Amino acid sequence: MIRFSFIIYVLLVGTALFSQTRELHMNTQVAIPSCDPDTLLVYDTTTYSHDIFGIARDTSKLFVQKKSTSVSYKAVTIEVTCDIQSDNYLVCGHDNGALARAPIGSEINALQRTWYADMTGAIGTVNLELDLALITAIIGSPPTDVKILVANNPGYVNYATIEATSVVAGIAYFEGIPLYNKYFTFSAP
Question: CB under 8 Å to 22, separation ≥6 — which residues?
């Protein structure tokens, strides 16, 4: 189990802690110290344990993380769209699925990699940035061809499709995405 103070240190210092950062990505749990002697577990998964990143606020620790990307795989960045109250967290990780494309419903260019966003408290919607080069997509794709698929389950039954707001210099931007306890992937040629 990882203590949140360790995560804060990694987020603030970045890649200077390569050996400790590797430890972060090999663990499957993220814990937040609470007022109790116990800890509040905010992310516990073995399936979606790759390249974990998140946003959070803990006023007792004087910590606010409004924008985040994984230290080792920088394809996806999330950012809050409103003020975060204390003890609210949104943590994401992926299943290490292939970056190859496969159909999901009518989306023929969906990645086989799935992310899971686990929320504690109420974060609200988030903005996402997707580096098209890092998912082996065409970096000049128009926004209507780059989409995020969001579902309540990893099988993408009854999923929502949201087109990118814009694509600038190979980065697709999505605004106001609801990722509270949701599974998501991307579709891009």
Answer: none
Burial of 143 (0-12, 13-18, 19+ CB in 10 A): middle
pLDDT digits (tens, 9 = 90+) for 161-177: 999 999 999 999 999 99
Question: Domain residues of the chain, as ranges?
Answer: 2-187
Contact 48, 115 (CB under 8 A): yes
Six-digit token string for 161: 């499709």
Cα separation, 65 vs 98, whole angstroms: 29
Tokens of 110: 């969906």
pLDDT of residue 28: 40
Tokens coding 82: 């409103």
Model pLDDT for residues 72-83, shown as the tens digit of each residue: 889 999 999 888
